[in-house]
Amino acid sequence: MTRTFQHLALWAFALLSLPMAAGAANEARTLNVLFIGNSFTARHNLSTVVKAMAEAGNPGLTLNRTDVIYGGRTLKDHWRLGTQNIVKQSTLTEAEEKATIAALEKDVAANHKDKYAPSALARHRDLLPKIEAYRKPWDIIVLQSYRDDIEGDPTLYAEYAPKFAALAKAQGARVILYETTPATQNEKALTAPPDPAPVLAKEKAIASLAKKIDASVAPMALVALRCQTQRPDLTLRFVNDAHLNQTMAYLTACTLYAALFNQSPVGLPIDTVTDIRTQEKPAPDKTKDRDGAPLTRKFSDQDRADLQRIAWEGWQEFQKLP
Q1: H helical segments located in 58-187
Q2: Which of 277, 280, 268, 321 minimizes the C-alpha distance to 295?
Q3: How far apart are CA 225 and CA 228, in angstroms?
Q4: How far is residue 121's CA from residue 161's CA, in Å, rounded to a whole number?
Q5: How confident is the model at residue 27 (pLDDT cuts 50, 70, 90)?
Q6: Where would I find the beta strands (DSSP E) of 229-298?
Q7: N or C: which end of the chain has fewer CB within 10 A?
Q8: Cβ-proximal residues to 215 (8 Å cutoff; 6+ apart), any chain
Q9: Average pLDDT, whole number, for the chain?
């Protein structure tokens, strides 16, 4: 048994061993989950879809989710913006938070074009007087990649994920690597399956990183490839927007569910995903997505079953990588 699966088994045992709340019909359990990322986490309110799946598949569970989002940013950017303080909030000191605020104030003064430092500064100024109220430890921390997992040896993702993971483990939290795949998502139906070689090469690198830091993985490049091979009629990104569409968001939520619980999402009743960005052209319409389709997509029973199965099969395939 690998260290990751030993960790999963111990965590699952601890979760199932929590005491039942008085009078509860099901065992009362709580997971505090922190999602760190950019629009690939923000779109479709992804963490809320994961929450709905988690609670539907685990009666008695409450998943408390918190997002730290900076659009288009990577883990390196998050480190500069002080997100590591959110990771270690259960032990964060006032001196550490004041030092982060001072550094961000310096960044804001030096670079007026940096639109992320001001929002990070506001976040940390808000946190400072509330440090004692935010002492709850995280159970799971999700680290999203975004084009920082492709080039370099090590990649920037491989450089910064261990930094965040070390802080997470010090708080007693599990880590999930949410690997995005913006370059391989298809906006049109495919007539032939994509070349699997580059996807497998990337996934082996992610698997190596995961083993190094004892993390679970949501391997979206591999899951997307499996979907493109088995259901080439489905598209995974918008035509008029480079982001993941509702189908890819659903696949991602199912894969994160597998990574969270080491169990299949097949049979979960959740069947809708709603994007947060609306149509702008040819005219604004808040009921439609960027491609002019309904903002909320309700999946047919067949599509829902296929996407859940594909996510689970892709996650299982990833576990077999060397």
Answers
A1: 75-80, 83-87, 94-110, 116-127, 156-170
A2: 277
A3: 5
A4: 22
A5: confident
A6: 272-274, 296-298
A7: C
A8: 4, 143, 161, 165, 174, 175, 176, 177, 209
A9: 93
Angle formed at CA 46 by CA 34 and CA 76, multiple of 5 degrees:
50
Q: Return left, alpha or beta for 214; rule: phi > 0 is left, psi -120 to 50 is alpha, else beta.
A: left
pTM over 0.85? The answer is yes
Tokens standing for 117?
A: 């430092």
| Cβ-contact 221, 162 below 8 angstroms | no
pLDDT per residue as tens digits for the range 175-196? 999 999 999 999 999 999 999 9
Closest CA to 176 of 262, 108, 241, 115: 262
The one-letter code for the residue type at 3 is R
With beta carbons less than 8 A apart as the criterion, state whether 108 and 121 touch: yes
Is the CB of residue 121 less than 8 Å from the CB of residue 156?
A: no
Region 258-262: what's the mean pLDDT?
Answer: 98
The helix/strand/coil state of 21 is coil
User: Hunting for tokens 């994509």 — which residue is that?
Assistant: 194
Q: Are 237 and 245 in contact (CB under 8 A)?
A: yes
Q: Is the peptide bond before 118 cis (omega within 30 degrees of 0)?
A: no
Domains and CATH numbers, the chain: 29-90+136-319 (3.40.50.1110)
Q: CB of 131 within 8 A of CB of 97?
A: yes
Angstrom distances, CA of residue 137 to CA of 100, 108, 170, 262: 20, 30, 10, 22
Q: Give the number of other CB atoms < 10 A from CB of residue 280.
A: 12
Q: Tens digit of pLDDT for each residue in 52-109? A: 999 999 999 999 999 999 999 999 999 999 999 999 999 999 999 999 999 999 999 9
Distances (CA, A) of 131 to 69, 94, 95, 226: 20, 7, 11, 44
| Cis check: omega of the bond before 154, within 30 degrees of 0 | yes
- Please indicate whether residue 25 or residue 159 has the higher confidence score (pLDDT): 159
